[in-house]
């Protein structure tokens, strides 16, 4: 337990963290990677370059300071981060390194304002917070390893099949090399793929949503080729697209993540995706169709046009076969071929008037995933429609950010 004095001191730093939080976390990563470059084998280099990791950590530190006297209020955030840590291979021995450099960064950025009292208080608080992460992550490691067919760390899988889904997205069907049992997962979860490129000093780990229902003898990921081959933008996705062939092997972590479909209810479900954000949505769609055939489900997808629209055939097949499944398509810039075929339902962006038209009711559980501006637009529309917060569920591809911040809208 933290002392009253420590809690008071931490609370007093909240205004400074609001102003200097991202500067502190930026300096933290700079110092830590300089002193411990081996940690670059774990952290996503692209998120570092884009500043998303720094922003996510700053938000977490700020939330911890705000709720330092009631840390149980941030446990959901801790669990969400812990899922990612377990999937990446973060271990207890990494936490003292993080703590040391976080304190150094606070002192470096705040200067004389970071008194010994403040540094000591944050050192004490970090110890408590770190122990919460370590404890929760241990449970997750144990669960991943002890479940039927489970494993610890990374396991070798064979690329059984590689399928081009669109101009940018390719699916990889993965089977365990040892031919042993494949554990189940929850629709919406992801796996980590670890790449050791001979031309790179450090390994690269990326997390990809599983894009099919559980219960198969394979895991499927559907990977978008990111723009550019330059480090680190698109490093792993381009490696998978260009270098990995059927029969090759990949190192995979056990499934993780808390963005999962609630199967304990029969309330209608609406799945909304933009671009490659359709991967967890398709997993959820396939699961509902297989496991809850009487549950109404509506699948709405936004893409640039038909050339960029992945997994369309499988969704259309379900729509035709299952009377409780409906699907709608929104193309931002349909091609002449799209226009001639009339193979979409809306041109432009998904907006509230159109959602009201195709859904007719907001009495549903809503799940959505896609580019950040897309997610902001969808969440804003659902809130405006009066959908309760507890029926709005979304997943970030990468570190979590604040969806309330204004940003230019693009949906795919």
UniProtKB/TrEMBL annotation:
The keyword Membrane does not apply. Binds 1 FAD per subunit. Keywords: Detoxification, FAD, Flavoprotein, Heme, Iron, Metal-binding, NAD, NADP, Oxidoreductase, Oxygen transport, Transport. FAD binds at residues 190, 206-209, 396-399. It comes from the Bacteria. Residues 1-138 form the Globin domain. The record marks 84, 395 as: Influences the redox potential of the prosthetic heme and FAD groups. Residues 149-412 are annotated as: Reductase. Heme b binds at residue 85. It catalyses: 2 nitric oxide + NADPH + 2 O2 = 2 nitrate + NADP(+) + H(+); 2 nitric oxide + NADH + 2 O2 = 2 nitrate + NAD(+) + H(+). The keyword Transmembrane helix does not apply. It holds the Pfam family NAD_binding_1. GO terms for molecular function: nitric oxide dioxygenase NAD(P)H activity. The record marks 29 as: Involved in heme-bound ligand stabilization and O-O bond activation. SUPFAM superfamilies: Ferredoxin reductase-like, C-terminal NADP-linked domain (SSF52343), Globin-like (SSF46458), Riboflavin synthase domain-like (SSF63380). Its EC number is 1.14.12.17. Residues 152-262 form the FAD-binding FR-type domain. NCBIfam families: PRK13289.1. Is involved in NO detoxification in an aerobic process, termed nitric oxide dioxygenase (NOD) reaction that utilizes O(2) and NAD(P)H to convert NO to nitrate, which protects the bacterium from various noxious nitrogen compounds. Therefore, plays a central role in the inducible response to nitrosative stress. This is Flavohemoprotein. It comes from Ectobacillus funiculus.
């Amino acid at each position: 337990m933290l002392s009253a004095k420590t809690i008071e001191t931490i609370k007093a730093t909240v205004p400074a963290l609001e102003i200097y939080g991202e500067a502190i976390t930026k300096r933290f990563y700079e110092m830590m990677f300089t002193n411990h470059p081996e940690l670059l084998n774990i952290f996503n280099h692209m998120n570092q370059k884009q500043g998303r990791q720094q922003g996510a950590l700053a938000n977490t530190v700020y939330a911890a300071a705000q709720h330092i006297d009631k840390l149980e209020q941030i446990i959901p955030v801790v669990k969400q981060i812990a899922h990612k840590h377990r999937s990446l291979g973060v271990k207890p021995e990494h936490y003292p390194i993080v703590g040391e450099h976080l304190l150094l960064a606070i002192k470096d950025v705040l200067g004389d304002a970071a008194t010994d009292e403040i540094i000591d208080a944050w050192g004490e608080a970090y110890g408590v917070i770190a122990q919460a992460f370590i404890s929760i992550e241990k449970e997750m490691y144990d669960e991943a390893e002890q479940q039927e067919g489970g494993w610890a760390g990374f396991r070798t899988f064979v690329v059984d099949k590689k399928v081009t889904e669109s101009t940018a997205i390719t699916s990889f069907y993965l089977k365990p090399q040892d031919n042993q049992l494949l554990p189940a997962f929850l629709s919406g979860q992801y796996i980590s793929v670890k790449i050791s490129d001979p031309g790179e000093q450090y390994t690269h780990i990326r997390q990809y949503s599983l894009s099919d229902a559980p219960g198969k003898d394979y895991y499927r990921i559907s990977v978008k080729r990111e723009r550019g081959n330059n480090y680190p933008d698109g490093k792993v996705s381009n490696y998978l697209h260009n270098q990995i062939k059927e029969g090759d092997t990949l190192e995979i972590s056990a499934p993780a993540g808390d963005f999962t479909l609630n199967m304990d209810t029969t309330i209608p479900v609406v799945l909304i995706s933009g671009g490659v954000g359709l991967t967890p949505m398709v997993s959820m769609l396939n699961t509902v169709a297989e496991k809850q055939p009487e549950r109404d489900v509506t699948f709405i997808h936004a893409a640039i046009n038909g050339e960029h629209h992945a997994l369309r055939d499988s969704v259309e097949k379900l729509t035709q076969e299952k009377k409780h499944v409906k699907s709608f398509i929104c193309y931002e810039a349909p091609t002449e071929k799209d226009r001639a075929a009339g193979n979409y339902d809306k041109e432009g962006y998904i907006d509230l008037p159109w959602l009201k038209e195709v859904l007719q009711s907001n009495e549903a559980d809503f799940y959505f995933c896609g580019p950040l501006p897309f997610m902001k637009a969808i969440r804003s529309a659902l809130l405006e429609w009066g959908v309760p917060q507890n029926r709005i569920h979304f997943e970030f591809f990468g570190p979590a950010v604040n969806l309330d911040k204004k940003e230019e809208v693009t949906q795919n």
